[in-house]
TrEMBL record:
One Gene Ontology cellular component annotation held by this UniProt entry: membrane raft
Keyword field contains DNA damage: no
A Pfam family matched in the record: V-set
Ranges for domain Ig-like: 30-130, 139-213, 220-312, 334-389
Originating organism: Solea senegalensis (Senegalese sole)
Region called Disordered, residue ranges: 266-285
GO biological process, one term: T cell activation
InterPro entries: Ig-like_dom (IPR007110), Ig_sub (IPR003599), Ig_sub2 (IPR003598), Ig_V-set (IPR013106)
PANTHER family in alphabetical order: MICROFIBRIL-ASSOCIATED GLYCOPROTEIN 3, T-CELL SURFACE GLYCOPROTEIN CD4
Signal peptide limits: 1-20
Name of the protein in question: Lymphocyte activation protein 3 protein
Length: 479
């Protein structure tokens, strides 16, 4: 079919709007599009695809030769093709890769066979979603626009954000007659994500998407985020800006109780204290508390200025501690309770027993649930520590450890230990008594010798008498 004939058909279609059926096809810019064309004749002599005002797109002659329009080549690669294996089924659909904005419009598929001509008209509409500005800053105005070419007058448009419908409070401008649909809003963190424009027209539906990235403070992601820490431990309060977004005048403040705007006059940490200066990125303005105490409980605010606009993020520091008490009626036991300064988000408490071997290797034992735990101080099984692990809807929030102080005597070894100590004490006493007797006897002999040494003759007589006495005693024994 010549270009002149196609133009006549196209003008007739626009004037009457009822003589030809036009198939509607929607495609997202950059994606492939398939323009349908089916015929009952599977042995055509000529197949011609044309586009209004652009002439031939693709054609195949009876000889088998193929031709492409000059504007359908991109970097030496043909963007259009008509899969030959489908011809035997009478399917002559046209595939357009990487559709562009100006590809939208009316197409004609002409199938000639034996002097018989079948024609199909297809309207290709290209949908694009754009965001302005392309990298919006938190708190600034942002516009999300849905454009369709050619625009389907009378079409309905709806918006979706991250797979769900956009709330009614978000301003949406679309009357089905305008050439686009626009969402205008002051940028907030909840607006980040995948924006999808859904266009419905004559029973067909098309959609296109764009990702909206909010630039500003990305950690914590929202205000009033809770940070959990145990008494005596260190904690980092996060304040991280989007990569490459370096704030001026970064600062930290502690808010007064009951106030979201007035900073505390007595600040427990410097206005800005990097948590790890040596390895920190310039857009990471987190701060650290080396040793958390109960006085640190409360709300904190980090801030920084980006392009003349001050950005802030509030967070709450929740402190965990363990309270212990000794039951009056159960000696050798201790009751421990896991306490948090704010436990509204806690849904579950678990106590995990942690023990250590001679090499210091850590192992985990039994797990008990509940906020309170009763521990036996004379049981060998409780040696080590108990970790209170508290969780919320999004998983584990934090933990705190209680180290068990065992009693001096263990229940299974108390009597045995006592008997061993008693035997050792008795044996040591007998040994000391024997040594004292030996020393006393030696001292007595020494004193006797001192008395007789000045009289040698007397000493001889004494020895002689002693010898004779011993001789008589031996003889009496023999008899």
């Amino acid at each position: 079919m010549s270009l002149v004939c196609f133009t006549v058909v196209f003008v007739t279609f626009l004037m009457t709007g009822a003589h030809c059926d036009v198939t509607e096809v929607f495609a997202e810019a950059g994606a492939p599009a398939v323009l349908p064309c089916k015929s009952t004749n599977n042995t055509p002599s000529t197949i011609i695809w044309t586009k209004a005002n652009k002439g031939t797109v693709w054609r195949k002659l009876k000889s088998g030769l193929q031709y492409w329009g000059s504007s359908w080549t991109q970097k030496g690669i043909q963007r259009v093709q008509c899969p030959h294996p489908q011809f035997v089924r009478g399917d002559y659909s046209l595939l357009i890769n990487n559709v562009q904005w100006d590809d939208g419009g009316l197409y004609s598929c002409s199938v000639e066979a034996g002097g018989w001509v079948a024609e199909n008209l297809v309207m290709l509409r290209i949908i694009t979603v754009s965001i302005s500005p392309s990298e919006p800053i938190l708190g600034r105005d942002v516009s999300v626009t849905c454009d369709v070419t050619p625009w389907p007058y009378g079409a309905s448009v709806r918006w979706m954000l991250n797979g769900g419908p956009v709330s009614s409070e978000t301003a949406v401008a679309s009357d089905g007659v305008s050439s686009n649909s626009i969402v205008r809003k002051k940028l907030a963190a909840r607006l980040s994500g995948n924006w999808t424009c859904v266009v419905s027209y004559k029973g067909k539906e098309g959609r296109a998407s764009a990702n909206l990235t909010v630039r500003g403070i990305i950690q914590p992601p929202t205000d009033n985020t809770k940070v959990y820490a145990a008494v005596g431990s260190s904690v980092t309060l996060p304040c991280i800006f989007s990569p490459g977004l370096i704030p001026s005048s970064p600062a930290w403040e502690k808010l007064q109780p009951g106030s979201l705007f007035k900073p505390s006059p007595s600040l427990p940490l410097p206005s800005f204290s990097p948590s790890s200066p040596s390895s920190q990125n310039p857009w990471d303005k987190s701060t650290a508390l080396k040793e958390v105490g109960l006085k640190d409980v409360g709300k904190y605010r980090c801030s920084g200025t980006i392009q003349g606009q001050k950005l802030t993020r509030d967070m709450q520091l929740v402190i965990a501690k363990i309270e212990s008490s000794v039951p009056s009626k159960r000696k050798g036991y201790v009751t421990v309770t896991c306490q948090l300064s704010d436990d509204k988000d806690v849904t579950n408490y678990e106590w995990v027993h942690v023990s250590y071997d001679v090499n210091g290797t850590q192992s985990f034992g039994s797990i008990q649930t509940g906020k309170t735990l009763i521990i036996s101080l004379v049981s060998e099984e409780n040696r080590g520590a108990w970790v209170c692990r508290f969780s919320g809807k999004e998983g584990i929030l934090g933990n705190i450890t209680y180290h068990v102080q065992m009693m001096s005597g263990l229940s299974g070894q108390e009597s045995t230990g006592f008997s061993h100590n008693t035997a050792a004490l008795v044996g040591l006493s007998l040994l000391l008594l024997f040594l004292l007797l030996v020393v006393a006897q030696m001292y007595k002999n020494h004193q006797r010798r001192k008395r007789v040494f000045p009289y040698p003759a007397l000493e001889t007589i004494v020895h002689t008498i002693a010898n004779e006495r011993e001789e008589r005693e031996r003889n009496q024994v023999k008899q």
